[in-house]
Amino acid sequence: MGLRQFIIDAWGWLNFKPVYADPVTGDPNRRAFPSAYATWVPEEDTRRLAAYTVLAAYDGGQAGELAEVRDGAEARERREYGDPAAFIDAITSDVLGDEQRIVVVGTEQDDTTTEDEEARAVQEDLLTWAEDEQLAMRMQQGERKAVGLGDAVYRLSWEPDKRRPVVRVMDPGFYFPVLDDDGEFPARVHFAWEVPEDSRRGLKARLRRITYELAPIGPATVSSAGGRGQPLRTFVGDQDAPQLVPGDTADEHGTIWRQYAWNAEPSRLTCYLTDAMWLMEDLERHNDVDNLPMNKAVYAQRADGEVLQHLDLLIDFVPVLHLPNSVPGAEEHWGKASLASVLQVLDELAASDTDAARASATTGIPILSVSGLQDGRASVQVEPGTVFKLADGGRMDVVNTAPQLAQLLSTVETLRDRAAVNLRLPAVALGTHDPAQMPSGYALKISLGPLDKLVAAMRLARRHKYQLLLRFVQRLYIAGQHPDWVGRSVHPANIVFGAYTPTDRMGVLEEVATAYAARLISLETALRMLAEGGWPIEDVAAEIDRIQARAFDQAAALADATGDAEAVRDYLGMKPADPEQIPTPVLVGPAAGPDPGAGPGGGGRSAR
Predict the structure, then answer these.
(1) How many CB atoms sit inside 10 A of residue 295's CB?
(2) 322 CB contacts (<8 Å, ≥6 apart)?
(3) Exposure of 173 by Cβ count < 10 A (0-12 exposed, 13-18 middle, 19+ buried)?
(4) For the purposes of burial, counting CB atoms within 10 Å of the CB of 177, is it exposed (0-12), middle (13-18) or buried (19 or more)?
(5) In sequence order, what DSSP letters do the residues of 183-210 get, joined into one string?
(6) Half-sphere exposure (CA, 13 Å, Cβ side) for 430?
(7) Which CA distances in Å does 100 have to 91, 223, 325?
(8) What's the CA gap between 587 and 593, in Å, rounded?
(9) CB neighbour list of residue 146: distance below 8 Å, 6 or more residues apart
(10) Cα–Cα distances in Å, from 486 out to 103, 186, 266?
(11) Do residues 363 and 401 make contact, with C-beta atoms less than 8 angstroms apart?
(12) Is the sign of the CA dihedral 231, 235, 236, 239 positive or negative?
């Protein structure tokens, strides 16, 4: 028997579990993870899919059920009281904060910049889109997968019926990117999963695959039907001289170019979408998710009738976002689950909970030792009201297991605290410590230091991804030719997460008021600090306008300093004053009264 292979990869932290890394082969157990060994799953994805299954088992309180596959029925008796799920929920809430705001660059003016009206319109439309798409709920779904499994995936598409982009959260177990040396933005992405057999409807087991691929622009195609009536796409025009999509141009080499509204230069690439199904019985062992037999595919149709066979989406990007839970290593693609570093502690915690449950049974119903019973046939079952008649010299002893139970419960709390420390979740953040017992607010802030660093690192891994998501949404609106987006450009935007720790509103107010009164911060910064501290300020720019509209003392000071009435009206948010009208002179004729040139007697010079 040779030595087990020593594997170091993105999921090496799971090698301690025999069900994941077999003591002989080092591979995941085939009976425990059958889906990871499906014939169409690439070999390099086996450990990743098995790791997702293990993490999902911990989250769902089924780690013992998974271990039973290898360790027998005794493994299923372990107690699992939801600690992993509680940790995942706490970290997810901290990363998201108490709110999520969409902020478009150019919508918050300060002393040196003015508000961009188009940026303001883009932000309002994005906020409306986020409300219609329930983006907050989608982010909650995606972030929980990222925290619990290490990865999450968003898929965006333009829906002609809804006239807006739609965002979907995909399970990372369905995500199969074709990675290159860069490893961050694959040009070909598959989503694939098995559809089980449905005997009642007469449907066999199938494999569904959705593929996005960046490829050179081709001639125009339309939806049609094949010889057996199956949906297909065919070229427009003659086969020898196919037509181009309106607006595309071909150079002397035959390369087709397209000018996208969001690019300064034309591009030769577009994104193609394919959605198809295969019967599992039609797949050979050499067929994996990236080389399925296309001649046996049955293509899907979109709601508007378009056949999803290499459909040109008229965009030059793959509308798929992979969200890692942590900052990936150099040239890596996958994130790391938050529970990765504490799974062994969670195993010890489950074992201690199991021992404590068993010890509590002997404490609640103690073990008795009785000697010298007068009637040897008398029952020794302990029940309320039971009386034992003992002969001379008889005795009854009770085995007290309460001290052992107390020690076990102490061990449980120690392990739970150990897990929280390694996860960088202070007791006050978990709600298990009374903040009132803190000696001061500064001490509370210091205790939250590890959590601050954790959230900062996790938000760093997400910042650029959510910027891309909002950029993709704007591009899809433009590509879909939505009437409100005609002529618009794509504006930089970001999703800003709210506060995640308890804040002292009055303390924040005092700090901000003191700094603003001393002219150490601007009004914009002051309001932003108040918003982050929990004050109900939804729009900083609008709040500034309302404040300045009533700031007559500051307006008077501005008038004294500049003497510019228009600047004062602009500061107060008032409309510009109407230009002064020069009065028209009134000319009085001779018949209307005395001659202006007449003397005191009223006489005038006679006309000659």
Answers:
(1) 6
(2) 151, 152, 153, 172, 175, 177, 333, 465
(3) buried
(4) buried
(5) -SS-SEEEEEEEE--BTTTTB--EEEEE
(6) 18
(7) 16, 41, 18
(8) 12
(9) 152, 323, 324, 325, 335
(10) 21, 30, 19
(11) yes
(12) negative
Q: What does residue 101 show for φ and ψ, rounded to 5 degrees?
A: -115, 140
Q: H helices within 296-401, ranges in order? A: 343-364
Task: Compute the chain's Rg from CA coordinates.
Answer: 37
164 close to 477: Cβ distance less than 8 angstroms? yes
Question: What phi and psi values does residue 413 have, to the nearest 5 degrees?
Answer: -65, -40
The DSSP annotation for 13-70 comes to GGTTSTTTS-TTT-SPPTTT-GGGG-TTS-GGGHHHHHHHHHHHHHHTT-HHHHHHHH
Instruction: Label residue 4 by pLDDT band (50, 70, 90).
Output: low
Q: Is 396 helix (H, G, I), strand (E, B) or coil?
A: strand
Contact present, 38 and 194 (Cβ < 8 Å): yes
* Maximum Cα–Cα distance across the chain: 165
pLDDT at res. 383: 66
Q: 309 with 119: CB under 8 angstroms?
A: no
Query: In Å, what is the CA distance from 116 to each residue of 111, 122, 395?
Result: 14, 10, 92
* Whether 49 contacts 33, CB under 8 Å: yes
- Give me the residue label for tokens 């914009």: 524
Report the distance separating Cα 432 and Cα 158, nearest Å.
45
Residue in the block written with tokens 């103690």: 366
Q: What is the mean pLDDT of the chain?
A: 83
Percent of the chain's residues with pLDDT above 90: 43
What are the pLDDT digits (tens) for 536-577? 777 777 777 777 666 666 667 767 767 777 766 666 666 666
Sign (positive or negative) of CA dihedral 458, 459, 464, 466:
positive
Phi, psi (rounded to 5 degrees) for 442? -65, -40
CA separation for the pair 143, 130 (Å, rounded): 16
Tell me the whole-structure pTM to 2 decimals.
Answer: 0.79
User: How far apart are alpha carbons 150 and 142 in whole angstroms?
Assistant: 11
Amino acid code (one letter) for 337: A
| Residue-level pLDDT at 578 | 60
Structure token digits, residue 193: 């999963």
- Tell me if 320 sits within 8 A of 155, measured CB to CB: yes
Q: Which helix (H) or strand (E) holds 224?
A: strand 221-225
* Both structure tokens of 107: 């919508």
Exposed/middle/buried for residue 189 (C-beta within 10 Å: 0-12, 13-18, 19+): buried
Residue 292 in tokens: 């399925």
Q: Is 270 exposed, middle or buried (0-12, 13-18, 19+ CB in 10 A)?
A: buried
Residue 464 makes CB contacts below 8 A (sequence gap 6+) with none
156, 476 contact by CB (below 8 A): yes
Q: Is 357 exposed, middle or buried (0-12, 13-18, 19+ CB in 10 A)?
A: middle
Q: Report the distance separating Cα 143 and Cα 458, nearest Å.
A: 11
Q: How is 502-558 classified by DSSP, letter by letter?
A: ---HHHHHHHHHHHHHTTSS-HHHHHHHHHHTT---S-HHHHHHHHHTT-HHHHHHH
Strand partners of residue 426: none
Q: Minimum mean pLDDT among 25-29, 52-56, 279-283: which range? A: 25-29
Residue 152, number of CB atoms within 10 A of its CB: 27
